[in-house]
């Protein structure tokens, strides 16, 4: 089993994913410890005009309910959040969410770069970014920002991705701490959680 | 995109306030910062200080700046289920007690929702029983809205929304194509009055039966949301309706108890107390 350089300094986890990431996300959410302590903030590419169904589909197997935050809602420990359809999800100082309907970025709304970059600004070195399978380059700049601010960067091992454009783009842009398959990501999260008493 | 110091943003908002009396102090920081970054990139400013100097000395550029900072990207019939609810429930309810209805689009931006509303009213046969006021802070965007010209390539999305709204016409009936743009039929907005108005510092100027302010307050911090909601509340008749964006919420505003939720999915509220 791999060993990771872990501590209890981390305050949040952000996960980005696009084409081919759904299965991985479901597997992660159904295998994390039931009382996983950090907030998990997910920005996944999704159909813009379909508001309902996605969060429900993710929740079915998840050990925790998945919640689409409202504008200005506070980020709480141990909760799992998903960027709502057709909004960008920003993290604000003071650990709240803010939504915007700004133009598409990387052809996407929600755009992973926005969630990752604003989270990196707020959480600095206390953030872990995980980028999964995907067919475009969204998230690469966000991962770079996380690394530049001292946070930890993890990509889904490109050889295990259905489409590896997204994690590969991140790897080409910035230093990646760990390249892991989905099972290893789950194991990583379990080891991370055990750091918190 | 460069990372911007909060202190520099404060300097910028102070200069803007002192020079032009526009107040961005209580805008939501993350999206405001992102928009400033975009302005820096777009116009090749090397620093926020350079932008401040330009804004301070060039009123013409300031207009462009306001446009970049406040533009609200929207769609015709965004959230078709919301528009269906308006047609099937909210507007019929208003018509029970009113011979005409007063509608306010607060922060109408480039006007897509105003045209959507007029199509809806037209298809209900009550366009001429409606008085609509559409306001925005930004003169330029208001002019664009009034002109009714949109990019042809965006119409595909609008049409998809219109079909999900289950309109009784074809959306194509409402516009003509001119090159890579479309021209909305100006007759459609014959009862719309377009006005420059600042939701933050502007006066309460009228009373309305229905206010649409969807995905506008998300750009404000909670303090400002509170203040703006008070103004909107003052601008509404008792038992009037307020519609906000599907992921906005009023529950943490001081005067939330003066409204009841009519539909939580579509975020439609009714004013029940003065």
UniProtKB/TrEMBL annotation, chain A:
Catalysed reaction, written as an equation: [protein]-L-glutamate 5-O-methyl ester + H2O = L-glutamyl-[protein] + methanol + H(+)
EC number(s) on file: 3.1.1.61
Domain CheB-type methylesterase: start-end pairs: 6-185
Active site as annotated: 18, 45, 138
UniProt superkingdom: Bacteria
Class of the enzyme per the UniProt entry, highest EC level: hydrolase
Keywords, in A-Z order: Chemotaxis, Hydrolase
InterPro entries xref list: CheB_C, Sig_transdc_resp-reg_Me-estase
Name of this protein: protein-glutamate methylesterase
Organism: Mangrovivirga halotolerans
Automatic annotation (TrEMBL), chain B:
One Pfam family this sequence matches: CheR
InterPro entries (alphabetical): Bact_Chemotaxis_MeTrfase, CheR_C, CheR_MeTrfase, CheR_N, SAM-dependent_MTases_sf
CDD domains assigned: AdoMet_MTases
Domain of life of the native organism: Bacteria
Regions annotated as coiled coil: none
PANTHER family: CHEMOTAXIS PROTEIN, CHEMOTAXIS PROTEIN METHYLTRANSFERASE
The name this protein goes by in its record: Protein-glutamate O-methyltransferase CheR
Organism: Mangrovivirga halotolerans
Source taxonomy: Bacteria, Pseudomonadati, Bacteroidota, Cytophagia, Cytophagales
């Amino acid at each position: 089993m791999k060993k990771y350089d872990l501590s209890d300094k981390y305050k949040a986890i952000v996960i980005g994913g696009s084409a081919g990431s759904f299965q991985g996300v479901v597997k992660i959410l159904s295998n994390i410890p039931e009382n996983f302590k950090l907030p998990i903030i997910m920005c996944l590419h999704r159909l813009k005009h379909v508001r309902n169904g996605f969060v429900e589909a993710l929740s079915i197997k998840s050990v925790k309910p998945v919640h689409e935050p409202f504008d200005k809602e506070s980020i709480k420990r141990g909760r799992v959040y998903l960027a709502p359809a057709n909004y960008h999800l920003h993290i604000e100082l003071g650990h709240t969410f803010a939504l915007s309907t700004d133009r598409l970025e990387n052809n996407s709304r929600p755009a992973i770069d926005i969630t990752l970059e604003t989270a990196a600004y707020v959480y600095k070195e206390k953030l872990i970014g995980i980028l999964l399978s995907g067919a475009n380059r969204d998230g690469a700049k966000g991962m770079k920002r996380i690394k530049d601010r001292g946070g930890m960067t993890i990509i889904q091992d490109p050889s295990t991705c259905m489409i590896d454009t997204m994690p590969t783009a991140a790897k080409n842009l910035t230093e990646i701490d760990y390249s892991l398959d989905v099972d290893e990501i789950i194991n990583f999260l379990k080891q991370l959680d055990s750091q918190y008493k | 995109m460069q990372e911007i110091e909060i202190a520099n943003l404060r300097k910028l908002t102070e200069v803007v306030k002192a020079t032009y009396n526009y107040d961005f102090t209580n805008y939501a920081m993350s999206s405001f910062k992102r928009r400033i970054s975009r302005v820096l990139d777009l116009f090749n400013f090397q620093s926020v200080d350079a932008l401040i100097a330009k804004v301070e000395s060039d009123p013409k550029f300031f207009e462009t700046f306001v446009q970049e900072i406040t533009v609200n990207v929207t769609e015709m019939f965004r959230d078709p289920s919301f528009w269906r609810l308006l047609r099937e429930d909210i507007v019929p309810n208003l018509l029970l007690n009113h011979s005409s209805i007063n509608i306010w689009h607060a922060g109408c931006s480039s006007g897509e929702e105003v045209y959507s509303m007029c199509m809806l009213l037209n298809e209900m046969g009550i366009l001429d029983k409606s008085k609509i006021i559409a306001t925005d802070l930004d003169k330029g965007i208001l002019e664009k809205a009034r002109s009714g010209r949109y990019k042809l390539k965006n119409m595909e999305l609008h049409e998809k929304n219109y079909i999900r709204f289950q309109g009784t016409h074809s959306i194509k009936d409402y516009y003509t194509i001119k090159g890579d743009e479309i021209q909305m039929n100006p007759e459609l907005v014959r009862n719309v009055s377009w006005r420059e108005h600042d939701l933050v510092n502007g006066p309460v100027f009228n009373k309305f039966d229905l206010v649409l302010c969807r995905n506008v307050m998300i750009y404000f911090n909670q303090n400002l949301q509170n203040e703006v909601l008070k103004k909107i509340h003052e601008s509404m008749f008792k038992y009037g309706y307020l519609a906000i964006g599907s992921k906005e919420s009023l529950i943490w505003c001081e005067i939330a108890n003066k409204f009841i939720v009519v539909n939580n999915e579509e975020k439609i509220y009714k004013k029940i107390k003065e």
